[in-house]
Structures are given as structure tokens and as C-alpha cells.
């Protein structure tokens, strides 16, 4: 927390950076935005061109409908955007879904787009960076890249179904993964079904 000019304590802002890359699973990013709206958290969205292509193939959402879910939308090439600076305070960043290309750029410090620049800023500021990596099976290079990112402080969180929650639809599985990922930022979304122990 920081002091303002009058000496009062200011709380960290309730805002989260959301990146959507071109891996399968654009719905995860869309539901992250929905969850943040429910929670009253300001969302700063950056989307890759490949993500919009995936969106058109996997969902009924148009690009305009997706971006309307965000509080603020940043252009992919706008490296002068607020989220490109560490002085712009956030709770962290989530990339949902995270493609192997995006993951690899982040791991090597390559910041060819605003999405990877924002991720790099998140790491250098020691804020939570959560990557919902979508690929399977992983080869050794993928795994080594994930290890490198974990050593830098990133959290690798592939969206895997929590079957104990007895999901009855794909959307329930998506929401469970999104909610558990938001837990990592201290955000408690209503859609999460919590483990309550074994039933006797």
C-alpha cells in the first residue's frame, strides 16, 4: 500500500489485466471478464489477432461482444498503454487461454506485443501472473519453458476439469476453472464449487 500526499493509506486498486491469446479456449477469457464484472473488478483487456480467430470458431461471440465485457480495451500494438508500465498498479494479470507461442515469448522476455509486454511488467513488479496454458501433450521444450516461468514467479494453471464438482455442462467446467484461477488473486467468484470433504 502507498501513502497519498495527505498521508492517508490507499488500498491497491481492484483491477486485473486480462490477456486472451490464440490457443483453443477463448471462452475462458470471456468468462474471466464476466466474473470480474460480477466481482466489481476493473478489467484491462488485450486480445491477439489469433484469439479473435479462435473466438469465431469456438463461440457465438463477436469481437465487439467480447470487448464489451471489459472495462478497458487496449490495442495489441499499443506499447504505450497504461498496462505497459509497472507504475500502473494492478492485482496482476491472467492470460486465458495462453498459447505456447505467448508462453514462450513471456519466458524469453520478448515483448513483441502489448500482451507479452504487460506480462513481463507483471513479473518484474512481482505481481501474480497466471497462465492458463492450453496444449497437450507437452513436449520437453514446453515443460522446460513452464519450469523457467515458474522460477520467474509465474503460475502455470492449465484449465483442467474438477470432476468432484460433478459438472453437468462444459460451461460449468469452464466456470470452475476460471473461478479457481481467480482464487489465486484473492477473488472469490460465486460459480466455484468448493470441496466440502468426503460425504459419509
Automatic annotation (TrEMBL):
<comment type="similarity">
    <text>Belongs to the UbiX/PAD1 family.</text>
</comment>
<dbReference type="InterPro" id="IPR036551">
    <property type="entry name" value="Flavin_trans-like"/>
</dbReference>
<feature type="binding site">
    <location>
        <position position="164"/>
    </location>
    <ligand>
        <name>dimethylallyl phosphate</name>
    </ligand>
</feature>
<keyword id="KW-0288">FMN</keyword>
<protein>
    <recommendedName>
        <fullName>Flavin prenyltransferase UbiX</fullName>
        <ecNumber>2.5.1.129</ecNumber>
    </recommendedName>
</protein>
<keyword id="KW-0637">Prenyltransferase</keyword>
<feature type="binding site">
    <location>
        <position position="48"/>
    </location>
    <ligand>
        <name>FMN</name>
    </ligand>
</feature>
<feature type="binding site">
    <location>
        <begin position="99"/>
        <end position="102"/>
    </location>
    <ligand>
        <name>FMN</name>
    </ligand>
</feature>
<feature type="binding site">
    <location>
        <begin position="22"/>
        <end position="24"/>
    </location>
    <ligand>
        <name>FMN</name>
    </ligand>
</feature>
<dbReference type="GO" id="GO:0016831">
    <property type="term" value="F:carboxy-lyase activity"/>
</dbReference>
<dbReference type="InterPro" id="IPR003382">
    <property type="entry name" value="Flavoprotein"/>
</dbReference>
<dbReference type="GO" id="GO:0106141">
    <property type="term" value="F:flavin prenyltransferase activity"/>
</dbReference>
<feature type="binding site">
    <location>
        <position position="134"/>
    </location>
    <ligand>
        <name>FMN</name>
    </ligand>
</feature>
<keyword id="KW-0808">Transferase</keyword>
<feature type="domain" description="Flavoprotein">
    <location>
        <begin position="15"/>
        <end position="183"/>
    </location>
</feature>
<feature type="binding site">
    <location>
        <position position="180"/>
    </location>
    <ligand>
        <name>dimethylallyl phosphate</name>
    </ligand>
</feature>
<dbReference type="InterPro" id="IPR004507">
    <property type="entry name" value="UbiX-like"/>
</dbReference>
<dbReference type="Pfam" id="PF02441">
    <property type="entry name" value="Flavoprotein"/>
</dbReference>
<comment type="function">
    <text>Flavin prenyltransferase that catalyzes the synthesis of the prenylated FMN cofactor (prenyl-FMN) for 4-hydroxy-3-polyprenylbenzoic acid decarboxylase UbiD. The prenyltransferase is metal-independent and links a dimethylallyl moiety from dimethylallyl monophosphate (DMAP) to the flavin N5 and C6 atoms of FMN.</text>
</comment>
<keyword id="KW-0285">Flavoprotein</keyword>
Amino acid at each position: 500500500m502507498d501513502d497519498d500526499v495527505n498521508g492517508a493509506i490507499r488500498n491497491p486498486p481492484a483491477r486485473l489485466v486480462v490477456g486472451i491469446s490464440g490457443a483453443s479456449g477463448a471462452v475462458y477469457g470471456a468468462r474471466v471478464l464476466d466474473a470480474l464484472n460480477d466481482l466489481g473488478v476493473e478489467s484491462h483487456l488485450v486480445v491477439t489477432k489469433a484469439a479473435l480467430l479462435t473466438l469465431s470458431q469456438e463461440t457465438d461471440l463477436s469481437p465487439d461482444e467480447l470487448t464489451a465485457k471489459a472495462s478497458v480495451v487496449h490495442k495489441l500494438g499499443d506499447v504505450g498503454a497504461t498496462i505497459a508500465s509497472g507504475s500502473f498498479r494492478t492485482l496482476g494479470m491472467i492470460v486465458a487461454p495462453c498459447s505456447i507461442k505467448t508462453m514462450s515469448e513471456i519466458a524469453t522476455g520478448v515483448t513483441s506485443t502489448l500482451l507479452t509486454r504487460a506480462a513481463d511488467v507483471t513479473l518484474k513488479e512481482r505481481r501474480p501472473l497466471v497462465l492458463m496454458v492450453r496444449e497437450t501433450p507437452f513436449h520437453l521444450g514446453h515443460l522446460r519453458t513452464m519450469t523457467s516461468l515458474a522460477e520467474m514467479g509465474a503460475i502455470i494453471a492449465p484449465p483442467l476439469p474438477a470432476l468432484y464438482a460433478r459438472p453437468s455442462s462444459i460451461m460449468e467446467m469452464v466456470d470452475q476453472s476460471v473461478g479457481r484461477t481467480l482464487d489465486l488473486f484473492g477473488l472469490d467468484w460465486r460459480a466455484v464449487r468448493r470441496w466440502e470433504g468426503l460425504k459419509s
